[in-house]
Design goal:
Distance between the termini: 47 Å
Structural class: mainly alpha
Length: 166
């Protein structure tokens, strides 16, 4: 079912680009790549800062000044700087596609998806707490952590054999 939904969305998007007479490569690829890059960078920034809050609230015993505070802080600031650079250089990055309506809507699409996600999460938390509780856990429900096995005798506990070491 998911593949049919994805195909339908793709057909609609490609159809809109075709109907408006835009070049599929210059318009569709460039603009969708910018949209995806912009959204992923914002998610990475938020996740970097979320690591700090998560360990401060949920696992204070596992907090480490570098791994759970300084590294995510530096990473979050660095990725936020990249987001600012992307925003400042969007027109250069997209070339002729910068003149399209879709280009002008990219930041608003990202904000809309973000706000839609917050609204959905708040709705689920209030009306369907059992579904809210499993957000992010469904994919990993059948996985298990691999045991540490010291394959090469160095005392570090390896997960796989290093093909370069004999």
């Amino acid at each position: 079912m998911a593949s049919f939904v994805q195909t339908a969305i793709t057909v609609v998007i490609v159809g809109l680009f075709w109907a408006t007479g835009q070049d599929p490569y210059l318009g569709l690829y460039v603009l969708m790549a910018i949209l995806g890059t912009f959204a992923i960078l914002i998610v990475q920034t938020l996740c970097s800062f979320a690591v700090i809050g998560y360990f401060a609230r949920n696992h204070p015993e596992a907090r480490h000044w570098f791994r759970t505070f300084l590294a995510p802080l530096i990473g979050g600031i660095g990725v936020a700087a990249v987001v600012v650079l992307l925003i400042l250089n969007l027109g250069t990055a997209t070339g002729d596609a910068a003149e399209t309506l879709f280009f002008k809507l990219i930041p608003w699409i990202v904000v809309g998806v973000f706000l839609g996600g917050i609204v959905l999460a708040l709705y689920l938390r209030a009306r369907r707490p059992e579904q809210y509780a499993i957000i992010g856990r469904i994919i990993y429900e059948d996985t298990a952590e691999r045991p540490d096995v010291d394959l090469d005798g160095d005392g570090r506990g390896d997960h796989a054999v290093n093909p370069l070491k004999s």
